[in-house]
Amino acid sequence: MTIPAVQLGPRAPRLSGARPPLSAAAGLLLTGLFCAACAAPRPSPPPTPALVRLLVTDLTEPLGWDLALAYAEANPAVVVAPLLAPAGSLAAELAAGRADLALTADPDPALFATPVAYLPWTVVVHPGNPLAALDLDTARALFAGQLTEWTALGAGPGQVQVVARAADSTAGQAFAALLWGAAPAAEAAVTRAARLAPTWDALRAMVAENPSAVGYLIGPALDGSVRPLPLRAEGRPALALRQLLAAASAGEPTGAARDFVAWAQGSAGQAVAAERHAALEPR
Question: Which of 38, 69, 151, 175 is most buried (most C-beta within 10 Å)?
Fold first, then answer.
């Protein structure tokens, strides 16, 4: 018997490329996995750090930043934000609730205040000045304009050029009080012939570039471009000029502000303060 041939034309049927339908069990399994992924809990965002608003002045800004940066490493859950403000506005800002704490060298009697560190001051001259130290009375005469020639001190030729902050500034008033103490106001004044510097950086640069200059700096502003001159008085080899800095608030601090002050007064905070300031004496 002869089997008839089958002609396969151009439209011969092909096998379908579609996947066979999923079984009911497989479909349920995939659906369950998808729903489980959707229902998985997302990680909670980190909590918002507590904010401590810390007012600082021209004198206390370096300590404020030193403590704030160190505290951020020790306690990331709290942000201490130093805010520069005029010294005369601190009490009003605290009373209005626009800040939690203030670092100040002259706390208002109406405020709660507790000590944090000491701010050191130093008389500075050009690195080429040959003097090793100054008597306190000599330093007063220099800054008052009563000694005008370096030859009178054996420091070589040249007219003394006093460099200072403005007499009515917080810095100028603080230095006069430290250098002259309770002397009458007419005597406790830097000469009007002084060159005035608007900032600590400017004062340091003006002394560094003038071999005849004498000025003063707070400890945190001191660097190798100028040379500090120790002061001597009443037979003591060194006389420290320093101011007590305090943390102040409208009332006794609470919460994160209280924790920050306690840390600053503790061993960790005092170690930070001692790097560029002077730590409190042990109790």
Answer: 175
